[in-house]
Amino acid sequence: MAATLAVAQRESAPASTHAPEEWEKIRAVVSAQRDALVAGDGERAFAQATPGLRRRYRTAAAFMRMASEGYRPLVDARYVEFLEGAIIEGSTIQPLRLVMPDGGVLVALYEMQRQRDGSWRIAACVIAPSTVKAA
Description:
Radius of gyration: 15 Å
Distance between the termini: 27 Å
Oligomer: single chain
């Protein structure tokens, strides 16, 4: 997915077909989940996931175990910044820059899914290295 994102950016493809208000809603969901992870609030973090992810992990405790093992940079980042979202091969992707305590930079790529009720939920997240260095 990261390679696809880089190609899309190089080709100067339009960033999205979502209205700005939709990107605000998407960012609010990502922020809510990250805030919950930082606070150790498994129920709130779990609530931001798609029904498919909730079925997969079954409980907020299991979800938090997975997040603490595989997504620690989301909690440890000293600074986060939303990057411009994009639609890539039909998937809505919201990148989040993570500046780590040591100055290293990672990017969390969130795949978002619109639910039947119109709300947005997190379907997946991949954390990738970045060539950007923090000041």
